[in-house]
């Protein structure tokens, strides 16, 4: 064991995705074999992410990524959530220890870098071709292993409904002052750096002028006519979509959220194995009116993620910061 062990794990752990790429988790090494995972409150989104549910689930994504990073370097790493965490209060304290990491043994190194680097969100247009049946089955099985349901749809009417519902939710959410102001600071313009956080125009596949206009004059985007034009422009960036899906299951308590995040990373890596990308469409489910419409259309009451998936060119990589806590 060397002093650089945590840095080596960080090289892959930083690839873990988080809502709006806010990266609120940091690893605080205690010694050569033990560390804590800390959540930084000013990187949370409590107005948009009601109850901090999605960010709390991202703990599970990070936990599984750290475990895989350990395997890559020949280390058996155990990552456990702390007991008694109340997700809805995480933003009330500057920092909260939410997990513990322990290096509990050694093993033969196994390459994990390829899949972790291949796993990305793709907001690009997709190729107008259906996913193979065995791919959809593999995704369904991956979710079921964790007692979640991956409900995939490929009929044109459902795909069209989901895509339009998503863009309507995006525009409607822009009209919510508190939520809009909260996420405004996470949008970035200019060339996408290798190191950073937030949502950059290249990975977002949206021109900077359009993003600036959406925040500068959100009410205009809600006007008849303008709304239709903006919707059409947005939907053109997502042409070729042949598949949409819902993920359903337990998603409320801290243990459920941590488990859901682990499942989501496994599902995402399964997509990478099949050369498939996905684009989570969270706006539909953080907006109660649109979430209710989804629940009624599909007859589900436990859906927590909507997405489109398919084949696309490799999307730009979102920038990441180190996961290591470097200041106190």
Overall geometry comes to globular
Provide the spatial order of strands within the biggest beta sheet.
Answer: 1-2-4-3
What Rg do the Cα atoms give? Answer: 19 Å
> In total, how many domains does the architecture comprise?
2
Beta-strand share of residues: 15-25%
Distance between the termini: 25 Å
Number of strands: 10
The CATH topology of the largest domain is given as NADH Oxidase
**The CATH fourth-level homologous superfamily of the largest domain:** NADH Oxidase
Largest sheet: 4 strands, antiparallel
Question: What is the CATH-assigned architecture of the largest domain?
Answer: 3-Layer(aba) Sandwich
SSE blueprint:
Blueprint: H1 5-13, E1 25-29, E2 34-40, H2 53-72, E3 75-81, E4 95-106, H3 113-118, H4 133-144, E5 149-153, H5 156-174, H6 177-184, E6 187-188, E7 199-200, H7 201-204, H8 208-216, H9 218-221, H10 226-236, E8 243-248, H11 254-273, E9 277-280, H12 283-286, H13 288-298, E10 303-310
Parallel strand pairs: 6-7
Antiparallel strand pairs: 1-2, 2-4, 3-4, 5-8, 8-10, 9-10
Helix pairs in contact: 1-2, 2-11, 4-11, 5-10
């Amino acid at each position: 064991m060397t002093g650089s062990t945590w840095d080596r794990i960080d090289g892959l752990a930083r690839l873990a995705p988080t809502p709006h790429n806010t990266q609120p988790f940091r690893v605080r090494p205690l010694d050569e074999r033990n560390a804590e995972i800390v959540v930084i409150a000013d990187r949370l989104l409590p107005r948009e992410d009601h109850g901090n549910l999605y960010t709390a689930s991202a703990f599970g994504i990070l936990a599984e990524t750290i475990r895989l990073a350990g395997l890559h370097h020949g280390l058996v790493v155990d990552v456990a959530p702390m007991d008694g965490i109340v997700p809805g209060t995480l933003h009330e304290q500057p920092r909260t220890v939410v997990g513990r990491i322990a290096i509990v043994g050694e093993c033969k190194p196994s390459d994990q870098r390829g899949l972790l680097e291949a796993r990305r969100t793709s907001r690009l247009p997709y190729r107008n071709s259906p996913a193979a049946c065995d791919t959809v089955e593999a995704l369904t099985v991956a979710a079921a292993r964790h007692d979640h349901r991956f409900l995939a749809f490929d009929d044109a009417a459902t795909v069209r409904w989901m895509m339009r519902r998503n863009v309507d939710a995006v525009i409607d959410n822009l009209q919510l002052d508190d939520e809009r102001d909260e996420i405004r600071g996470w949008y970035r313009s200019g060339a996408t750096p290798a190191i950073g956080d937030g949502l950059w125009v290249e990975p977002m596949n949206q021109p900077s002028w359009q993003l600036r206009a959406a925040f500068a004059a959100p009410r205009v985007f809600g006007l008849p006519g303008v709304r239709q034009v903006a919707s059409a422009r947005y939907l053109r960036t997502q042409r070729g979509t042949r598949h949409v899906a819902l993920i359903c299951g337990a998603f409320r308590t801290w243990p459920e959220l941590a488990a859901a995040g682990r499942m989501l990373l496994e599902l995402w890596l399964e997509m990478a194995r099949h050369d498939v990308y996905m684009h989570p469409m969270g706006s539909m489910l953080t907006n109660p009116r649109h979430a209710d419409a989804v629940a009624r259309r599909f007859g589900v009451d436990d859906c927590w993620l909507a997405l489109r998936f398919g084949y696309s060119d490799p999307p730009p990589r979102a920038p990441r910061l180190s996961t290591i806590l470097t200041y106190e």
